[in-house]
């Protein structure tokens, strides 16, 4: 499920009577990956709403951060062949969602090593139905899409002369989020901890929390500088200044939602109060702002009942 389809489901299911639309900001998804050069031999391939793949080119092979969803894997395969005709031999998954690991099987079959957090196989193997989101059925990932190398906290390795550092940021977007740091070129891939042009999705059903998202963003801010290129799972590359405002938004909406819940306001009433209005453009428009208000109220409301 794409992030814009998901946005429509959240708005429709968490907010009875709310309008539901499933489209990206242009009304269509791109069919050809766009390519941006972030540093020598470091590229970003994006395909509309479907997300970003970071590519690190070595002398003999490629490293990929995330592998798209199954429907777009072939397009990325073709784009990679044009960009750098070398085999992807190392893959890092930022988390378990299908639009980030859906191409794993293609490259694992060709001998790639796939790195991920210990929690990813557990979440990816679940067969669950989320009733709060219109009975969304999350189907298990196939065995061939699973990682071959996992770790609990952090990992570090040399990729053909480039230092690659992986860090687990707990209970944020999910409970198995990784960020990928390339210190030699000052590039940080943060997966869906940072969302650009759409509302952040907090996967409350897989260990994600808003407090964890804020802690993860603080981690990012503590380790980045003015010139660091911060790569989100979807959307354009941003800088530290952009993430500072993103953090302010998360904290403000959390505070407003907590107050609304204590005051007995429903999700509908909270959304109707337009608590995200000043960040609507960042959230993909009015629907995105409303959707984010709904999901924050839902998740915090469940936690505050405990």
Task: Pick out its properties.
306 residues, alpha/beta, Metallo-beta-lactamase, Chain A, seven-stranded mixed β-sheet, five-stranded mixed β-sheet, 9 helices, 14 strands, globular
What's the layout of helices and strands?
Elements: H1 3-14, E1 34-39, E2 42-46, E3 52-57, E4 62-65, H2 70-83, E5 88-92, H3 98-101, H4 104-108, E6 113-117, H5 119-124, E7 128-130, E8 136-138, E9 149-151, E10 154-159, E11 162-168, E12 178-182, E13 187-191, H6 210-223, E14 229-232, H7 240-262, H8 267-272, H9 286-305
Parallel strand pairs: 4-5, 5-6, 6-9, 13-14
Antiparallel strand pairs: 1-2, 2-3, 3-4, 7-8, 10-11, 11-12, 12-13
Characterization of this structure:
- Helices cover 34% and strands 22% of the residues.
- A hairpin with a 5-residue loop joins strand 7 and strand 8.
- The chain is globular.
- It has one domain: Ribonuclease Z/Hydroxyacylglutathione hydrolase-like (Metallo-beta-lactamase, Chain A, 4-Layer Sandwich), CATH 3.60.15.
- With 306 residues, it is α/β, with parallel strands linked by helices.
- It starts with a helix and ends with a helix.
- The protein has 9 helices and 14 strands.
- Helix 6 packs antiparallel against helix 7 (240-262).
- The model is unreliable at 15-30 (pLDDT under 50).
- The strands form 3 sheets. The protein has a 7-stranded mixed sheet with strand order 1-2-3-4-5-6-9. It has a 5-stranded mixed sheet with strand order 10-11-12-13-14, with no helix packed on it.
């Amino acid at each position: 499920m794409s992030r814009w389809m998901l946005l429509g489901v959240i708005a429709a299911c968490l907010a009875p009577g709310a309008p539901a639309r499933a489209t990206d900001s242009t009304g269509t998804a791109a069919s050809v990956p766009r390519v941006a050069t972030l540093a020598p031999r470091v590229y970003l391939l994006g395909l509309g709403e479907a997300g970003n793949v970071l590519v690190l080119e070595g002398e003999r092979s490629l490293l990929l951060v995330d592998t798209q969803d199954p429907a777009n894997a072939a397009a990325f395969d073709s784009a990679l062949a044009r960009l750098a005709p070398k085999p992807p031999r190392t893959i890092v998954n930022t988390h378990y969602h299908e639009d980030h690991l859906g191409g794993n099987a293609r490259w694992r079959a060709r001998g790639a090593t796939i790195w991920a957090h210990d929690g990813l196989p557990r979440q990816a193997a679940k067969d669950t139905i989320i009733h709060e989101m219109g009975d969304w059925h999350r189907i298990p990932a196939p065995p061939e899409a699973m990682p071959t190398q996992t770790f609990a906290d952090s990992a570090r390795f040399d990729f053909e002369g480039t230092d690659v550092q992986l860090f687990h940021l707990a209970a944020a977007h999910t409970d198995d989020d990784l960020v990928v740091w390339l210190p030699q070129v000052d590039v940080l891939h943060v997966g869906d901890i940072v969302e650009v042009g759409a509302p952040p999705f907090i996967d409350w059903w897989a260990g994600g929390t808003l407090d964890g998202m804020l802690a993860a963003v603080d981690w990012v801010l503590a380790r980045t500088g003015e010139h660091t290129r911060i790569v989100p799972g979807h959307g354009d590359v941003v800088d530290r200044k952009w993430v500072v405002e993103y953090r302010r938004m998360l904290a403000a909406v959390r505070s407003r939602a907590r107050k609304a819940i204590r005051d007995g306001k429903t999700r509908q009433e909270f959304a109707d109060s337009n608590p995200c209005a000043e960040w609507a453009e960042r959230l993909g428009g009015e629907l995105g702002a409303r959707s984010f208000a709904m999901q924050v109220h839902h998740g915090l409301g469940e936690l505050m009942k405990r």
